[in-house]
Amino acid sequence: MSTQANTGIPFSYSHSQSPIHLIELPPTLLSLVTSPSPPIIKIKAAPTPANATAPRGSENHAVLCTPTQTFSLRHVHCSNSILLVQPSEPPPPDPVEDEQQQTFSLTSTCLRAVATASSWLELIPVTADCASLLREKIPVYHGWADDDPALPTTDEPISRARLLDSIPISDAEFSAAWDELLAFEANNGAACRPSATAILRTISEINTSATAESFPLSSPSAFTGSAILGMLDDVEIPAGLVTVVIGSICDRVEGSTDENTWRLNKDKCCVFVGEALLQDCMEIKTREIVARRPNTATLITRSAFMAKWKAAVPEECISKCRLDTIQGWHALFGDADPRVTAGSSTASLSSLPAPAKNTAPAKKNWHERLGKRR
């Protein structure tokens, strides 16, 4: 015998259906949006180039971004219809229905289908290569000299805020990639990333100005970023580049009333300058290969590199300059040969002598030997 209640709910179907898009939220995201202080959720996609004729690639699809995480949006189709219902007013009395209610009673709650969907969006967490995405969008800043243009004149300047809106990654992932590339905004507001030459010149200007002003960078009392910028008033260095360099060679002083208070980290400074100097040598080698001497390797001795390195860091950091502190780079210095090939990592490897070919005659196959005997 059936135990189902002999009751029903009046149901109707609205003729004017409202368009809806359904999103299936993972538990972590559901708890985030239902929290007492839900964050702003964004749906982002990279803009399609104006001259693009091909369909959008998979790397340009839309994503949903929380402040710290990125989710890929996947369109899922369903063979059945999904109805969105809401309570409605009870229908007017009908003699036929009144007669049916004697055997099948209806509740006073009524439902009406106001929208229909046959698909929904599924969210899949993704971890994008944010640094590569930014590297493609941000031009390289080479310097501020008249003979070395700072930024390409053909590129339209784009600010950090515009980049953040146009790149399909979360705000936290964008900030981490921005810091990894040492990106900054130039004086005209254009986002850019410094070349190794620009970094070394900025450090040189800071050291020169600090020496001229008798300003001890390694003072235990620390210093403010505004004090460094004040010493560089007569130099056309973007303030953003100076701030990036200071943050790369110094540690922020915690608990200070001024958030822009720094103290020189000697170990951190030596590693940063050493890697920038080696990268500068690599860029010089690359230009020489492209320009005039593709088959000639530009060699710099170990002692010459060390001399440049020690001259580039503050005097207090000279004793910290050791090749074993440059992780991932000192392997280019051969242990047997005191010279190092300066060039890009690809150029350096390609400039090495190729393995010697085996000049001995190859052994013949069995059928060749048999044919020769015949």
TrEMBL record:
Residue stretches of biased makeup (Basic and acidic residues): 365-374
Region (Disordered): 343-374
Keywords, sorted A to Z: DNA replication
Transmembrane domains' residue ranges: none
Originating organism: Tuber aestivum
GO biological process: DNA replication; maintenance of mitotic sister chromatid cohesion
Nucleus in keyword set: no
Signal peptide span: none
Gene Ontology cellular component terms for the protein in this record: chromatin; chromosome, centromeric region; Ctf18 RFC-like complex
InterPro entries documented for this protein: Dcc1
Protein known as: Sister chromatid cohesion protein Dcc1
Family under the similarity heading: Belongs to the DCC1 family.
